């Protein structure tokens, strides 16, 4: 069996402008009746540009960059959520991604039923999810509401349940998009403890964050992205300095 590894070779990723144009009837009407020829032109977004990265077993990697630099796109491309436009991505090992916690819920189904549904989306078997059900319910602290439809839950209750499910199913490779906020202060303490436990158990960690303190504490290697391009790949301390330099330059423009 191959050791856990993430390898990107000359990866490009575009968002087509058609995905952003005329999303609604009102937007279409606005374009049709706009005075003159000053219609808004939306260009394709080149989210990743010729990115090559090799991450091996045991590595803890921080992704740094300004908003829109490509950090979340990088993670979602590695997770297989975004199809790339060019190049190649190889992932060896069982991957667990912690972002988009709200995905995978059926609003008319109960919390208990959604444990099974979301578990299946995460690649777990029905037997495995049933075995973890009591643990998930206890961690989410939903009490009798676990047997109520998801559509009756508050936003905080949904996040707690989604977090409990997602972090119960482990993996060799852990992708994190920021350190996740998940409800009230008491739950946040338990959530952070669980995240740190997952990090310790994972063979590879890739964490995207603006919190340089967390990155310094958790990661040894840093990757700086800007405009979809790879600017720096090396020790986390130097990566943080490069990130600060780029941020200052952009602020002076």
TrEMBL record:
<dbReference type="Pfam" id="PF00005">
    <property type="entry name" value="ABC_tran"/>
</dbReference>
<comment type="similarity">
    <text>Belongs to the ABC transporter superfamily.</text>
</comment>
<dbReference type="GO" id="GO:0005524">
    <property type="term" value="F:ATP binding"/>
</dbReference>
<dbReference type="GO" id="GO:0016020">
    <property type="term" value="C:membrane"/>
</dbReference>
<dbReference type="InterPro" id="IPR015860">
    <property type="entry name" value="ABC_transpr_TagH-like"/>
</dbReference>
<dbReference type="GO" id="GO:0016887">
    <property type="term" value="F:ATP hydrolysis activity"/>
</dbReference>
<dbReference type="InterPro" id="IPR003593">
    <property type="entry name" value="AAA+_ATPase"/>
</dbReference>
<keyword id="KW-0378">Hydrolase</keyword>
<keyword id="KW-0067">ATP-binding</keyword>
<keyword id="KW-0547">Nucleotide-binding</keyword>
<dbReference type="InterPro" id="IPR003439">
    <property type="entry name" value="ABC_transporter-like_ATP-bd"/>
</dbReference>
<dbReference type="InterPro" id="IPR027417">
    <property type="entry name" value="P-loop_NTPase"/>
</dbReference>
<protein>
    <submittedName>
        <fullName>Teichoic-acid-transporting ATPase</fullName>
        <ecNumber>3.6.3.40</ecNumber>
    </submittedName>
</protein>
<keyword id="KW-0813">Transport</keyword>
<dbReference type="InterPro" id="IPR050683">
    <property type="entry name" value="Bact_Polysacc_Export_ATP-bd"/>
</dbReference>
<dbReference type="GO" id="GO:0140359">
    <property type="term" value="F:ABC-type transporter activity"/>
</dbReference>
<dbReference type="InterPro" id="IPR017871">
    <property type="entry name" value="ABC_transporter-like_CS"/>
</dbReference>
<feature type="domain" description="ABC transporter">
    <location>
        <begin position="33"/>
        <end position="252"/>
    </location>
</feature>
